């Protein structure tokens, strides 16, 4: 899965003056960071700006990384705080997915999209669209476990809960994701299992 020097080796060398090696960490984690950022904003330009900002902040704070968890766990914290700060500055409205109006909007957008694109969607696209219909907390824990490949212990550290609580939250988020997929992406789900 991971080739070349491990993250901690690269970090130690960067801190000892070999700053150019930081590019290896950026390359290794750019998709990870971008995927998480897209959970907060669907605007690609904003996402690119935020991702770049994340790597600048991580570089400046690299001496604070103690190696008690994976680098990706530490980086995730920087990603989420940077995203939240960015959205607050932009004053982007945050909608509750509990309101009927948001569901109607999602239904209308998705039904038109499905009519034209059913055959072209990949499993990943469908899952990502379904994740956008979840609460930020549910989308975050699913992203951490499946896309960022964090353990329940690491997810617990990130969320400030014990691993068993993280496991329960993950289970509930998976149930809600399944419900969203069955409701909004019925045809795509049939294609995936069929």
TrEMBL record:
Sequence similarity: Belongs to the sigma-70 factor family. ECF subfamily.
Protein name: RNA polymerase sigma factor
SUPFAM superfamilies in UniProt: Sigma2 domain of RNA polymerase sigma factors, Sigma3 and sigma4 domains of RNA polymerase sigma factors
Entry-linked InterPro entries: RNA_pol_sigma-70-like, RNA_pol_sigma-70_dom, RNA_pol_sigma70_ECF_CS, RNA_pol_sigma70_r2, RNA_pol_sigma70_r4_t2, RNA_pol_sigma_r2, RNA_pol_sigma_r3/r4-like, WH-like_DNA-bd_sf
A GO MF label: DNA binding
Occurrences of domain RNA polymerase sigma factor 70 region 4 type (ranges): 126-177
Transcription found in the keyword field: yes
RNA polymerase sigma-70 region domain span: 25-91
Taxonomic superkingdom: Bacteria
Gene3D superfamilies in the record: 1.10.1740.10, Winged helix-like DNA-binding domain superfamily/Winged helix DNA-binding domain (1.10.10.10)
GO terms for biological process, alphabetical: DNA-templated transcription initiation
Keywords tagged on the record: DNA-binding, Sigma factor, Transcription, Transcription regulation
UniProt entry tagged with the keyword Transcription: yes
């Amino acid at each position: 899965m991971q080739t070349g020097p491990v993250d901690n080796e690269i970090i130690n060398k960067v801190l000892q003056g070999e700053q150019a090696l930081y590019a290896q960490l950026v390359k290794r984690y750019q998709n990870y960071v971008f995927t998480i950022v897209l959970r907060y904003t669907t605007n690609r330009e904003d996402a690119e700006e935020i991702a770049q900002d994340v790597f600048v902040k991580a570089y400046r704070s690299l001496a604070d990384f103690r190696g008690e968890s994976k680098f990706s766990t530490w980086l995730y914290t920087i990603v989420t705080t940077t995203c939240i700060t960015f959205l607050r500055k932009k004053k982007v409205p945050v909608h509750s997915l509990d309101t009927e109006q948001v569901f109607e909007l999602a239904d209308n957008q998705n039904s038109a999209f499905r009519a034209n694109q059913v055959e072209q969607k990949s499993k990943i696209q469908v899952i990502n669209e379904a994740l956008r219909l979840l609460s930020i907390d549910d989308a975050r824990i699913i992203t951490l476990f499946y896309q960022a490949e964090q353990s329940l212990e690491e997810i617990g550290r990130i969320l400030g809960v014990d691993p068993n609580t993280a496991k329960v939250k993950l289970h509930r988020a998976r149930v809600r994701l399944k419900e969203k997929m069955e409701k909004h992406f019925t045809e795509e789900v049939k294609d995936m299992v069929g």
